[in-house]
Specification:
The chain has about 375 residues and is an alpha/beta fold. Helices cover about 25% and strands about 20% of the residues. It has a six-stranded mixed beta sheet, with helices on both faces. It has a five-stranded mixed beta sheet with strand order 8-15-14-10-11, with no helix packed on it. The chain has a four-stranded antiparallel beta sheet with strand order 7-9-13-12, with no helix packed on it. The longest helix has 20 residues.
Length: about 375
């Protein structure tokens, strides 16, 4: 379902007004019926500019390579929200809410990303409920390059559990760029949070959890990953996750991970012929211009090929087809042979390749029409 952004904004404002009317002010925990499992505002209070005043400080410096985030459109999805009335739902042992942790980390991460020049959109700014489809649609309507769904984990009857996992959708071949994003995020969280235990393979497919995977990742139309940074069901970790300093530490770890991902280049493809994506009059080819995410920087050696030729694969309607790859030192061109006898109507084409840092193309999926 497509969500009207104006309606979302109004809903956010009304949500804030209702909370205020209920007496929920910053720094005050509201506990209906004195039940901690129905409380809101469960995090330690922090001033509105807590993150902003620390971004760029010695402890939270912006590394030079963060400049490659400039112009990258990143949609942050703070998981859950609008669920405080569900007793015990997504809460730690003392009632700390995952939805509040997720939102604070997302807002702190945005502060870092904006300073680096990235364009950032949050799927929610307040404690409101959105469907998985709505969250993915917000990112798609905004033409996001990357979609990060931010979460924290839970497990019943194992309070000692506390480790990091990052999730991608489907099998490893579904969208290789999802693996790239997930891998950078996972490495960043492992280095930044340093939780005391580790699962031996922290990068995981969402098919391990559900037959069709996580709905929010399944509906995402762009490169996407879901983080489960640590466990709020671990009593000690629950208390750390209430602390704005710890939330900022997590946000900084995610920021550095995204900056390193961008440093390695974000490859893209563009269909340039036919310009209207319509095959007419017996035409037999599609022409793509490839971008390795690196050459445009004009660094020493930029004229050398920085796309792995053997990584190039093209499929039309799921079947591999022949192609020709050309590089004149300034421009990469991929000429794709359209199979003879292709039926009239719409067809899907997938273009995959990797740059020299093994980052895969962000936008591999295209459609064309045969008349």
């Amino acid at each position: 379902m497509r969500l009207n952004h104006r309606a979302l904004f109004v809903a956010c404002v009304l949500s804030g007004l209702m909370l205020s009317a209920a007496g929920c002010r910053a720094g005050r925990r509201v506990t209906p019926g004195a039940d901690p499992m129905l409380s809101v505002r469960t995090l330690i209070d922090a001033p509105e500019d807590f993150a902003r005043r620390r971004v760029g400080s010695d402890d939270y410096s912006i590394p030079p390579y963060a400049k490659f985030l400039k112009g990258v459109r990143i949609c942050l999805n703070p998981g859950h929200g609008g669920d405080a009335h569900k007793r015990g739902f997504k809460r730690g042992p003392t009632g700390v809410r995952e939805a509040e942790i997720n939102l604070r980390v997302a807002k702190y991460l945005r502060e870092f990303l904006v300073v680096a020049g990235a364009e950032v959109l949050l799927t929610r700014e307040d404690d409101i409920e959105l469907s998985y489809e709505e969250r993915a649609a917000i990112a798609a309507d905004w033409n996001a390059d990357l979609f990060l769904s931010l979460h924290h984990n839970a497990i019943d009857n194992k309070p000692q559990a506390n480790y990091t996992t990052v999730w991608y959708h489907g099998d490893v071949d579904y969208r290789p760029s999802n693996l790239d994003l997930a891998r950078y995020l996972c490495e960043g969280l492992l280095d930044g949070l340093r939780v005391p235990t580790i699962t031996d393979v922290p990068l995981k497919s969402d098919l391990l959890m559900y037959e069709q995977g996580f709905a929010v990742l399944r509906h995402a139309k762009m490169t996407a990953a879901l983080t489960e940074s640590s466990f709020y069901t671990n009593p000690a970790e629950e208390q750390r996750l209430r602390d704005p300093a710890y939330n900022l530490r997590e946000a900084y770890a995610l920021f550095l991970a995204l900056a390193k991902y961008a440093l390695a280049g974000l490859p893209r493809a563009a269909l340039v012929e036919p310009a209207d994506a319509v095959i007419r009059g017996g035409a037999t080819r599609l022409v793509f211009e490839l971008d390795d995410g690196l050459r445009s920087r004009k660094a020493w050696g930029h004229e050398r090929t920085m796309i792995l030729r053997d990584s190039i694969a093209v499929r039309i309607d799921g079947e591999r087809v022949a192609h020709r790859f050309d590089d004149d030192g300034e421009r990469y061109t991929l000429v794709v042979n359209v199979p003879a006898g292709l039926a009239v109507g719409e067809h899907a084409v997938e273009v995959q390749f990797q740059n020299l840092n093994k980052n895969s193309v962000l936008n591999p999926h295209f459609e064309f029409l045969v008349e």
